[in-house]
Amino acid sequence: MTSARMNRRAALGLAGGTALALASSGALARGVKAPQAWDRTVDVLVVGSGFAGLAAAIEARTEGADVLCIEKMSIVGGNSILSGGGLASPGNDLQVAAGIKDSPELLLADMLKSGGGLANVECAKVVAYGALDAYRWAKDFLGVKFDRLGYQGGHSVARSACYMNGNGANMVGPMAKKAKELGVALETRTRLVNLVTDEKGAVVGAELVKGYVFPKEDSGTRMFVRARKGVVVAGGGFSQNVKLRMLHDPRLGPQLESTNQPGATGDAMMAAQRIGAADVQMDWIQLGPWTSPDEKGFGVCPKFVESSVGYGLMVDPKTGKRFVNETGNRKVRSDAIIATGHPAVILVSEENAGHVPPSTIKAGMENGSIRRFANLDELAKFYGINAESLKASVTRWNEAVAAKKDPDFNAKIFKDTKENKGVFYACRLWPRVHYCMGGLAINPKAEVINTDLNVIPGLYAAGEVAGGVHGMVRLGTVSIADCVVFGRVAGRNAAQRKI
Amino acid sequence: MKKTLILLVMALAALPFAADAKGFADYHTETLKLPCTTCHKTPDTMPTTETCTGCHPTDKLVESTKNVKPTNPHTSPHYGAKLDCVNCHVGHEPSENYCAQCHSFDFKVP
């Protein structure tokens, strides 16, 4: 089944790639030529102000380049400022303090395994081997504070250094501050419209809109910025672009919301595609299996869910039965929930919910997404589940817990998992579009590859806008490592480029 | 002038706003009787955040809404108090609740 599915996905990817290749071949390319006079000239132009863009801007500036970093939204940070996790970094001091043995080799193995053999190994290596240095850079050079070591699904060990309070603003803040201190021009409400290429196809600048008001296409004024050395595209993914994501995965229509900030529409990526950039794995779009239809955006349920799997169970309310490995990766779980056609219900006894942060349960009960029930009959009635079926499922799961072995789906059961009985907490789950693994094709130097499989001189990409690094599934907190590592690689290489 | 600004802030904070208000600009021109040039320095000039904070200082705004449930709309763990006014208060169009994209905060945005 997995093999057949993978073959079909590969075929779809190939077909999509071929079609896009035809559309973006030289004769049809819609590159913009250089204007008679540039409005402004810098060494390096960075598009996007999340982790990847800010990392690129700081690194390019540190290498001596004159840097302009633009952001189309009214405030810096993109999805990064909203992110609630940390930096996967093997060998970090929090691991050392906890006595956890880890290595870049182990991180790489986890990434490749989770990526289903589709990750670009050379690019994955850049992230795995660069992650610890990125952590040190963030901690020592930027002054980012990390307060906790976290475990994330799919990793062999706990290795995620979580920024203070799990709040992305506590990392974006120091980055934006450092960028400004160093003399980076950081300008919001400034959107990339087109990349400017010379007669040889090298990127020499960009056409921008100054004073842009998202999402008004006709707002602001056009200007041309020359980028002597290079343009770094770090504009993030396209989870908020329904048309684009449906192009690559027709299931991801408007019935699925997104966890992303509204500006995650893929503008910068499409600008690069228009001048011939190749893309890779565009149809591998990750859904978050832990979001609830009873609250908006990312919400608090993801924290509840990821602390309950392996302790409680998830059932299809129509049958009352379990239907998937609750501790499987994001794709396995999301696909299973969507296949049922309606929200799932995850439940965990109060005793087993000790791992859920109390603030999460409090917030979830206040907004109504998490519920507390005195017993299984109450829970079944509330969610419209057949009570006898539900009880049978709980009994069977408790048998698996006692044996520490799940014969039905091989879910992970922790040493401290106990029998589920008495008072229960529960919530409904319906996936949201969360992360685009696909994007622009890059090499280990963050250079963008065109559809002739050559480097596009002067064009670099980093972060979620780039494809291939993660393969079919991205591991939690590896994306932040990816953004910082490749952001710095892109910034450094752009600044050092010989013209 | 300072007294006028403070009174204006207090007045704005205290007044109830109808859910079907046409837009923030209408309130300024029709109810407060302020001239267009209060926000648009010239007919072709778009207001900036500094235009708004010139009359509504950020720190006073944050203070005036500190008791709004479930959280203060003018400051957040993500953006502090730095989010541009027009993310919610759109001059000539209905107001928006920017936080509602991710949170179930039922703010009544004037």
TrEMBL record, chain A:
Any coiled-coil regions, as ranges: none
Keyword Zinc-finger found: no
Signal peptide: 1-29
GO MF, any single term: FMN binding
Keywords, comma-separated and alphabetical: FAD, Flavoprotein, Oxidoreductase, Signal
Domain FAD-dependent oxidoreductase 2 FAD-binding as annotated: residue spans: 43-479
Top-level lineage group: Bacteria
Record has DNA damage as a keyword: no
Required cofactor names: FAD
PROSITE patterns in the record: TAT
InterPro entries named among the record's database cross-references: FAD-dep_OxRdtase_2_FAD-bd, FAD-oxidoreductase_2, FAD/NAD-bd_sf, Flavocytochrome_c, Succ_DH/fumarate_Rdtase_cat_sf, TAT_signal
Family, as annotated: Belongs to the FAD-dependent oxidoreductase 2 family. FRD/SDH subfamily.
Name of the protein described by the UniProt record: Flavocytochrome c
Species for this entry: Sutterella seckii
Lineage: Bacteria, Pseudomonadati, Pseudomonadota, Betaproteobacteria, Burkholderiales
TrEMBL record, chain B:
Signal sequence, start to end: 1-21
A cellular component term, taken from the record's GO annotations: cell envelope
Keywords: Electron transport, Heme, Iron, Metal-binding, Signal, Transport
Main location: other
GO molecular function: metal ion binding
Subcellular location: Cell envelope
InterPro entries: Multihaem_cyt_sf, Tetrahaem_cytochrome
Domain of life assignment: Bacteria
Alphabetical list of Gene3D superfamilies matching this protein: Flavocytochrome C3, Chain A
Keyword Transport: yes
Ranges for domain Tetrahaem cytochrome: 32-104
Cofactors (names): heme c
Protein name, as recorded: Cytochrome c3 family protein
Naturally occurring in which organism (per UniProt): Sutterella seckii
